[in-house]
Design goal:
Layout (H helix, E strand, L loop, with lengths): L7 H20 L5 H17 L14 E4 L6 H10 L6 H5 L29 H20 L11 E5 L1 H5 L1 H13 L4 E7 L2 E2 L2 E2 L8 H8 L2 E5 L6 H13 L5 E6 L22 H11 L10 H7 L1 H23 L1 H12 L22 H13 L5 E5 L3 H4 L18 E3 L4 H12 L6 E7 L7 H9 L5 E5 L17 H6 L5 E3 L4 H15 L9 E4 L13 H4 L4 E4 L7 E5 L4 H13 L4 E5 L3 H5 L3 H7 L7 E4 L8 H4 L4 E3 L10 H7 L4 H12 L1
Length: 674
């Protein structure tokens, strides 16, 4: 039945719907169903609830919005355009999913201003939202004063059935309930449809009861397509619950308004088609041509510009008073918000000499974290229930827990994937926090999706991965990483560093901190691969050399006959092997190569100085699979590597049996030299 007249609010909501319909139709690609069904909750959030400034998307005290169901991104693009963000014009809407568009196929924070985090892989967004809420809670506890609440904003998320099916959401939401994050409010678009069809095929649990068990406050809005007041009241009730995160189950009809495809998977992931678009316009009484927004609706939406300016002006006045009364705290907060590092922070990094005792790089990592924590108040992080093994506890702080959000030690529990996505959210909060997350290197398999998204999203996270080889010993092949370092090197914009000793570990942290907060360019995450076994501190290693990615650790006079290349715990084997080879008259260069990515950042002249083209005999020694080393050893070189799984035995014996001995390095080198 056609609609004769529409109220102003209906006009606004249908403007969202038809921008989504028309954009997907023009692209012949996309997901129109979610925006059509979720438009009312989007309208209520952006028109009645959220505090933001369209003309300054980075205003520090804005509410954060996360579309966890990122396939429905036209909902977010429509709202950004309608409320007055310059980043999404009508022309951008028309270029949905096209080359270099500001409206890509899923929301990307680095591509579209107003998008807080990159979503699409389901479950990541709601887990990012937990990180955003944790960042707000930490900053509020750290900087707020009883008479001056300078940090005071909410995190809102819209998630769908797919998000609730993915395990990462359960990990993160379980932790959010434990922490009592009262300023996290999630709206669950309960439309009972996934790509395969009705969720009855595979998903029949009571999501509300599950979240209640997590410790969330749960409500249900049975009619999410027309009852705006019920949605608004539920959000206000959620805001009144300050000691729990809130889930509002909003039951909707996917593809609402489509006479033939609504409430079916046909409208989930494909354009409606010309005939159905026409029928939907008739059914909804929408008399406007494609991409046209009624003037009354646009004028109403654009009131957000004046509201936003007022919100920011009020906050600026508050911050002016804060600076006058709490100048020390204000200076720290301003520096963090600016993205700048404290002057001379790197002086806190420990340095070592060969006289210092052998130690595991995981221990040296712990010492470094504690050394720099005192000069980097933005450093915050923890481990997936492995803090004693990962050495990640900050001794100067207590645990981040409900009611104690000012503390910096995060206890993630055995939730690697959730930890990863939460750290991404904290890094993308925009407040200058540098989060770190730790586990065993082998368990990056559990969190690879989040690590990949940290690189894609330009999130300055530090991944602290210990127990980096078969050298960890008795836990055996289930816990011994072999393929992990090479596979992580394949992720674009992820900096992987495997330090050989204490100086290289300090250098790794210098690189990681500077990548997290670069003076120019985009932020990058860094992954540290650290040893369990003790390693000697090497002559010639340094923080500065580490930053080059690869450097000459020792050399013979004249042009070398062979180059021994080591990473991490295998570098000292190359050093000792070179001594034996030189005693036999061989000219040997030893190169420590903690990071391929940092090395590739150097200019061609430097790279050639380390690896001259004329020296073709090269031996790379790394306790991992050989994949990728052909790049540096060439056709005339070889590797000492592990192209199989590890073994269960004491670590030193495992290394010996798998060929990681000085004698084997010598033998392989002699074989290369003929």
């Amino acid at each position: 039945m056609a609609v004769a007249t529409q109220s102003l609010e209906e006009l606004c909501i249908n403007s969202i719907r038809f921008l989504a319909i028309d954009a997907v139709e023009k692209a012949n690609s996309g997901h129109p169903g979610l925006p059509m069904g979720a438009a009312p909750m989007g309208f209520v959030l952006w028109d009645r609830i959220m505090r933001y400034n369209p003309k300054n998307p980075k205003w520090p005290n804005r509410d954060r919005f996360v579309l966890s169901a990122g396939h429905g991104c036209m909902l977010q693009y429509a709202l950004l355009h309608l409320t007055g963000y310059d980043s999404v014009t009508l022309d951008d809407i028309k270029q949905f999913r096209q080359w270099e568009s500001k409206t890509p196929g899923h929301p990307e924070n680095f591509q579209t201003e107003g998008v807080e985090v990159t979503t699409g892989p389901l479950g990541q967004g709601i887990a990012n939202a937990v990180g955003l809420a944790m960042a707000e809670a930490h900053l509020a506890a750290k900087f707020n004063k009883p008479d001056c609440q300078i940090i005071d904003h909410y995190t809102y998320a819209i998630l769908g059935d797919g998000c609730n099916m993915e395990g990462v959401s359960g990990e993160a939401c379980s932790l959010a309930g434990h922490l009592g994050l009262g300023k996290l409010i999630a709206l669950y678009d309960d439309n009972h449809i996934s790509i395969d069809g009705s969720t009855d095929l595979s998903f029949t649990e009571d999501v509300g009861k599950r979240f209640e068990a997590y410790g969330w406050h749960v409500q249900h809005v049975p009619d999410g397509n027309t009852n705006l007041e019920a949605i608004e009241q539920a959000i206000k009730a959620a805001k009144a619950v300050t000691d729990k995160p809130s889930l509002i189950k909003v039951t909707t009809i996917i593809g609402y308004g489509s006479p033939n495809k609504a409430n079916s998977h046909d409208v989930h992931g494909a354009a409606l088609g010309g005939d159905e678009v026409k029928a939907t316009r008739e059914n909804m009484g929408w008399k406007y041509p494609e991409f046209e927004v009624p003037e009354d609706a646009l004028s109403h939406f654009r009131k957000a510009v004046d509201r936003g300016a007022q919100y920011e002006q009020e906050w600026n006045s508050l911050f002016t008073r804060y600076k006058a009364e709490y100048s020390e705290e204000a200076a720290v907060l301003e520096r963090m918000l600016s993205g700048k590092l404290p002057e001379g922070w790197e002086k806190a990094l420990p340095t070592y000499t060969p006289k210092d005792k052998k130690d595991a790089t995981r221990n040296q990592s712990g010492a470094t974290l504690n050394a720099i924590a005192g000069v980097l108040p933005e450093l915050i992080g923890g481990s997936a229930d492995l803090a004693p093994s990962n050495k990640t506890l900050l001794k100067s702080s207590q645990d981040f827990q409900k009611g104690h959000y000012e503390n910096r030690n995060l206890r993630f529990g055995v939730r690697e994937h959730g930890m990863g996505a939460i750290c991404n959210g904290m890094a993308l909060h925009g407040s200058g926090l540098i989060p770190y997350g730790a586990t065993f290197l082998v368990f990056t398999d559990y969190m690879r999706g989040a690590i990949r998204l940290s690189a894609l999203s330009q999130a300055g996270v530090i991944w602290v991965m210990t127990h980096d080889s078969v050298g960890l010993g008795e836990d055996g092949p289930t816990h011994q990483p072999v393929e992990h370092i090479p596979s992580l090197r394949m992720i674009p914009d992820l900096v992987v560093i495997r330090p050989a000793d204490g100086n290289e570990t300090s250098g790794a942290y210098k690189a990681a901190i500077e990548k997290a907060k670069p003076k120019t360019g985009k932020a990058q995450p860094t992954l540290l691969a650290l040893s369990r076994q003790g390693l000697p501190n090497l002559e010639g290693s340094s923080i500065e050399n580490t930053l080059k990615g690869a450097y000459i650790l020792s050399d013979s006079d004249g042009t070398p006959e062979i180059i021994l290349i080591g990473t991490g715990s295998e570098v000292f084997l190359c050093v000792d092997a070179a001594v034996k080879l030189r005693a036999e008259g061989k000219k040997v260069r030893v190169v420590s190569m903690p990071s391929w990515e940092l090395f590739e950042d150097q200019d061609e002249a430097y790279r050639q100085s380390v690896f001259p083209k004329a020296v073709t005999k090269r031996l790379a020694v790394e306790a991992a699979v050989s994949f990728g080393w052909c790049r540096y050893v060439g056709s005339e070189g070889t590797t000492i590597s592990i192209d199989t799984f590890g073994v269960s035995s004491p670590g030193p014996l495992a290394m010996e049996k798998l060929g990681y001995t000085v004698d084997n390095v010598v033998a392989k080198a002699k074989s290369l030299l003929g």
